[in-house]
Amino acid sequence: MKKISILISAVVAVSIMQLKAQPLPDEIRMNQFIKELMAKMTLEEKIGQLNLPGAGDITTGQTASSDIGKKIIEGSVGGLFNISSVAKIRGVQQVAVEKSRLKIPLIFGMDVIHGYKSVFPIPLGLSCSWDMNLIEQSARIAAQEASADGICWTFSPMVDISRDPRWGRIAEGSGEDPYLGSEIAKAMVRGYQGKDLSANNTIMACVKHYALYGAPDAGRDYNTVDMSHQRMYNEYFPPYKGAIDAGSGSVMASFNEVDGIPATASKWLMTEVLRNQWGFNGFIVTDYTGINEMIDHGMGDLKTVSALALKAGIDMDMVGEGFLTTLKQSLAEGKITMDQIDAACRRILEAKYKLGLFEDPYRYCDLKRPATEVYTDANRMQARKTAAHSFVLLKNEGNILPLKKNARIALVGPLADNRLNMCGTWTVAGDFEKAISVKDGIGMVTAKPELITYAKGSNIVADSALEARIGMFGKATGWDSRPAEIVIAEAVKASQNADVIVAVMGEAAESSGESSSMSDIELPENQRNLLKALLKTGKPVVMVLFAGRPMAIKWEHENVPAILNVWFGGSEAGAAVADVLFGDVVPSGKLTTTFPQNIGQVPLYYNHKNTGRPLPEGQWFTKFRSNYLDVSNEALYPFGYGLSYTGFTYSDLVLSSKTMKPDGKIDITVRVTNTGNFDGEEVVQLYIRDMVGTTTRPVKELKDFTKVLIKKGETRNITFTIDIEDLKFYNYDLQHVAEAGDFKVFVGGNSRDVKSADFVLTE
Ligand code: BGC
After folding, report:
1. Active site amino acids
2. Which distant-in-sequence residues (6+ apart) come within 8 Å of 107 by Cβ?
3. How far apart are CA 746 and CA 595, in angstroms?
4. 303 occurs within a structural domain
5. CATH number at residue 688
6. Dist CA 117 CA 143 (whole Å)
7. d(CA 359, CA 444)
8. Which domain holds residue 665?
9. Same domain? 394 vs 468
């Protein structure tokens, strides 16, 4: 059926601000307080609030901060970030509230990305749990620990959609899907901010990197981004908006350009979309020296780019001091207005007010809290459980897994005994020396520790210069300088009497993350050589794969009988790996990014368009169709994929109706049966395809999912209810509409293997 009319439309440009209710009494009190405070502030003190120096050891940009103490006393600092320890933070806060003229407290930020000292899996791993409670809980614990140690603001959640595994920061996000990404963004914000931002155990979220940072050309970090507005609104914006809808108190601008203008200077992004369309009323901080970098983008000198950023709607300048050093002059020259400075200053003060810092600047500085609230047994147990739920079982031929607890295991590989690399990227507060390695974890869970033999078998990469580059931030990989053959021979020897070989391989923690893009995402050849030697022994081999990105592991898929992808599981990673290897936890993670067969297929994602020349279903290659000569269009492992130790079958779908009225609903029911020998959790996924539209529509889009525990032998009826909201998209005019016509609904355990049914949306 042809769609002819637009049923629901909402003009995107309508300002939500105009629709806002009257201010609450709390807000009135806050406004009054801030008005009185600002009346006392000099121009310099107002500009000072917009300045955010970095105080930590990590310098990611072109400059580092200096003279911070003096500037705090002068009133030239609004906050600081990446200082660890409550004692230090208390001391610095004391300088601000005792020695500066107006005694305005500082806000203390940190990259608390996946946990604080109890480190949770990297966000990409966390997303593979598809478990919103676990994800929210991970952010809750991170907030609890960070706030006990003086932090009240985190630069998280990072919600950049990415379809490019070359990009190292794919590790920090939730994968490729806008709907799942948006649900995760909301869960994280809820976890950090709780119900009351002024409570001493909640912290302010900062959703980043707004916007489109995950789509750099060629997957190279910081590179140019260019995409259509339809793609932005439908595919890349939803997670940022999700975080805003959940109340994220702040937003971080991204480094990249959007429509030819660096995001930091984009009034369209910062004011029109974020504030006017989405109703955001918190503050916006740049990324690290994001203003200064606009000089290299070719936007002008520091004074020019600082004025551009302020006018776009940026409130706080991270590290670069463009605001601090040039805004006064720009004001004198009439390039910016006092109103613009006031608006930015007010937003920073509001954030401090909402965090309760004016009431008590030491709210997050209780020196006694860390001893009982940080890195506690309970938090570590939760991190261990979460890690086990983030792992994705990619292959398990002959049910090699789970292992018997009395098995003789040869534990080999460069990541088997490697505590420093368990936590993954971005762990500012983590004590990764204390992390549980796989060797430690197996030792804890096996019944027969004496039957475990160990050998390293290989370095992570063959090139020592590359190995040094990925051994950043104190996460040395432990370089073995002996000839590779000798190291491999040692591993083969260690495997001689084993029942099974567990090969712990993959990437180093800092092979992914910021400025860690890779042009080759296969398992390094030296590790593959080790695998070949291990396979030659004829013993069953289980590959435990550490990775911060989807790797192109076609050869391993074809040759290794069992593969467990464990991302970087955090401080308890090794214990969680052992829990899953021995079957104490049945794997239930599902991929949130597509694993390509090879790098040439990238970007490869499930929710693509059909094109005018799609490859006929079931075919590998057809001339003059959209395909490659040398590789099929298929993913190695599709979005949503992940095995269990048990098996699940899906019945055909039953729809409560074959038609939906614009104000109606349809229930879609499927029976899912656990056919194996273990109780197991299954992520049941619902996708929709809009068959005909006024613009082209993806072949499938995730619209709902549920994670359910199904006991062995049991069948569960799963019912999803969809309504018109699930059918809406941003059309050519960027109106959010649903168009009448034919739809397909799919339900399955991944995006490829699904049951389907048709329905019609009537006018
Ligand atoms: C990163 C941000 C981070 C900031 C502060 C930047 O280089 O892009 O994600 O929050 O540094 O550490």
Report:
1. 287
2. 78, 79, 152, 153, 204, 348, 351, 352, 355, 357
3. 21
4. no
5. 2.60.40.10
6. 11
7. 47
8. 648-761
9. yes
**Region of residue 515 (left: phi > 0; alpha: psi -120 to 50; beta: else):** left
From the list 99, 80, 47, the residue with the least C-alpha distance to 151 is: 80
424 alpha carbon to ligand 1 midpoint, in Å? 16
- Residue 156 CA to residue 149 CA, distance in Å, equals 17
Contact partners, residue 744, CB within 8 Å, separation at least 6? 688, 689, 691, 756, 757, 758
Pocket probe mutation, ligand 1, options 80, 287, 319, 515, max atoms within 8 Å of Cβ: 287
Ligand 1 atom 8, closest CA: 287
Query: Is the dihedral angle over the CA atoms 196, 202, 204, 207 positive or is it negative?
Result: negative
Residue 97 lies in a domain: no
Structure token pair of residue 450: 């004496």
- Residue 449: inside a domain: yes
Among 593, 618, 634, give the residue marking a domain's end. Answer: 593
Residue with tokens 């990673």: 573
> What are the residue ranges of helices labelled H in 265-312?
267, 293-297, 302-312
Contact indicator for 569, 430 with CB cutoff of 8 Å? no
Do residue 414 and residue 560 come from a single domain?
yes
pLDDT of residue 305: 98
Closest-CA residue, ligand 1 atom 2, reads 287
Atom of ligand 1 nearest to the CA of 428: 12
- CB burial of residue 611 (10 Å; 0-12, 13-18, 19+): exposed
For residue 569, give both structure tokens. Answer: 């599981």
Q: For the chain, how far is it from start to end, CA to CA, in angstroms?
A: 12
Q: Which helix (H) or strand (E) holds 756?
A: strand 754-761
Q: Are residues 669 and 564 in the same domain?
A: no
Pocket test for ligand 1, best of 62, 84, 154, 155 (most atoms within 8 A of CB): 155
Q: How far is the CA of 283 from the centre of ligand 1 (A)?
A: 16
pLDDT at 465: 92
- Going by alpha carbons, the residue nearest to atom 10 of ligand 1 is 155
CB under 6 Å to ligand 1: residues?
A: 60, 82, 111, 155, 208, 287-288, 514
What pLDDT does residue 57 have? Answer: 54
Same domain for 491 and 558? yes
Residue in this structure with the two tokens 């923690």, named with its chain if needed: 509
For residues 551 and 695, membership in a common domain is answered with: no
CA distance linking residue 288 with residue 607, whole number of Å? 32
Q: In whole angstroms, what is the distance from residue 587 CA to residue 48 CA? A: 51
Judgement on whether residues 572 and 652 belong to the same structural domain of the protein: no
pTM: 0.96
Q: How far apart are CA 16 and CA 213, in angstroms?
A: 26
**What pLDDT is stored for residue 55 in this prediction?**
81
Q: Residue 519: give its domain's CATH number.
A: 3.40.50.1700
Q: Which two tokens stand for residue 302?
A: 């520091």
- Give the integer Cα–Cα distance in Å for 586 and 674: 13
675 CA distance to ligand 1 centroid (A)?
A: 46
- Residue 114 makes CB contacts below 8 A (sequence gap 6+) with 120, 121, 122, 123, 126, 138, 142, 156, 424, 426, 427, 570
Q: Which atom of ligand 1 is nearest to the CA of 252?
A: 10
Mean pLDDT by groups of 10 residues along the chain of 763 residues: 36 43 82 98 98 75 75 96 93 96 98 98 98 98 98 98 98 98 98 97 98 98 98 98 98 98 98 98 98 98 98 98 98 98 98 98 98 98 98 98 98 98 95 96 98 98 93 88 97 98 98 97 98 98 98 98 98 98 98 98 98 94 97 98 98 98 98 98 98 98 98 98 98 98 98 98 97
* Same-domain status, 438 and 549: yes
The reply to whether 390 and 520 lie within a common domain is yes
The tally of domains found in the chain comes to 2
Q: How far apart are CA 94 and CA 100, in angstroms?
A: 10
Nearest CA to ligand 1 atom 6: 288
Residue 528 lies in a domain: yes
